Amino acid sequence: MADLVKSFDPVGGEVFGGRYLTWMRSAATNYTQRCSAWTPSPSLVCALRDLAMFETWRRKGYSRPSDKDCIRHTRKRRIRSHRISRLKGNILRKQPLEDSKSMDVGQRRCWFMILEEAHCTPQQAAAAHLFAHAVTLQPPMASACDRLRDLKAFDDTKAGVKGLIDAGITTVPAIFRHPPDTLARAHDEDRFAIPVIDLAGVTTAPSRRAELVAEVKAAAETVGFFQVVNHGVPGPVMSEMLAALRSFNEEPAEARRPYYSRDGQSRVRYHSNFDLFRSPAANWRDTLYLDMAPTGPSPGEIPAACRGIAVEFTREVQRLGGTLFELLSEAMGLNRGFLEQHEAGCLEGLSVVGHYYPASPQPHLTMGTSRHTDPSFLTVLLQDSIGGLQVLHRQRNDEQPVWVDVPAEPGAFTINVGDFLQLLSNDRFRSVEHRVLSKSVGPRVSVACFFRPHGAAAAASVCAPILVGDGAASPPRYRSVTVEELIVHYRDKALDGTSMLDHYRI
């Protein structure tokens, strides 16, 4: 296969020549030696060339071809879309490498064609995928085999990104380096600002409540994000929660290691990147998960630094969540208790997730959190003064979306609609993509509170579009699904910059 790479220069060295071509040759040789020795068939050669050409189009900034375009231009192959869909399930079930899930739609489509045309064995499929993956990566990102080794070595330290900082690193390790096209930091501060809603009078002034319902409705339908002030959560409780999380992460690694776990069923777990072994690139952050409701951990299970404040903070956020769900219910034309009483269990579970973002020596090479949407009904976020959160916002349908900063307003919570609520609202409320930039200053500390059931309650909680109230006239846009299915799908796909909801659209 290394020799095959010599013909992979469809634009005369402009993309695949020089250092890049040398790197690809080396990668292809290493991959095939590690997987299997085999000779690709002529049809596989054509398919691989097509993949290279497809990536050339993408890198030169041309618009991505549609399904029909891709099929028409792929050496005139006549592969029907339903044939590709049928192959998709079969291939992913037999796929030997987890990181196939990180490939984007275009890369997957070309890879499906490779496997169909070549009738590959599993070993050949592994080599084909590894090579296809190499074509799409940018040096000096790690090769697949070296990357897996480095990921395991990092995870085995059980010290997280903070452990790297304590070790005195001066460059970002390869496993944390993101593709350049995901790191663009252009944003629009002048034309748009995230709405700030003052909740004063929400329970005492009926006329003010009607105004608040209208404000929440407008924000949920257009932006998907808003900030709330005068929410009733005491300032000392907010600052103490941030301080407790910072204190835990700055304890010696030996004190943090007992909590390090990738067991998703554990009510208390600490680690770096839940999708570490599935994502294209790791994020520059460590996380402490506390599943606090409906049944929280015992006090002895919670790290000592957070033990005194976690329960009080949870109680205050649950109260605020109840108020917000009432306003959202009324915004949908329903009675104020509708969402709280709904079978989906909007208020039945609460996960308090503390993120710790150390200062990065090379923030332009990595991300604090990749672009994603939230697997929740509603997310209530508390962030410190450093900032870095950005929302992808489109002012009008005919405009390109831009990244908008969400400033760290003193004393405010940032609220965003989650995927589950977008499904319930039948697309009336928007769950929008957001991300966190890596910075040279820090650490940044934030606490994201996800309203969603977990455990046995998630299996029993059913999400389906609400077709009463203002949504009575609209046909359902999603099929019925349990919260457990949604969460499993979210974890499987990792933070790949796509919405989980597309998988459930009718």
UniProtKB/TrEMBL annotation:
Pfam families referenced in this protein's UniProt entry, alphabetically: 2OG-FeII_Oxy, DIOX_N
Keywords attached to this entry: Iron, Metal-binding, Oxidoreductase
Presence of the UniProt keyword Iron in the record: yes
Cofactor dependence: Fe cation
UniProt feature coiled coil, ranges: none
Molecular function per GO: dioxygenase activity; metal ion binding
UniProt-listed InterPro entries: DIOX_N, IPNS-like_FE2OG_OXY, IPNS-like_sf, Oxoglu/Fe-dep_dioxygenase_dom
Keyword Oxidoreductase listed: yes
Transmembrane segments: none
Family assignment from sequence similarity: Belongs to the iron/ascorbate-dependent oxidoreductase family.
Protein name stated in the entry: 1-aminocyclopropane-1-carboxylate oxidase-like protein 1
UniProt organism field: Triticum urartu
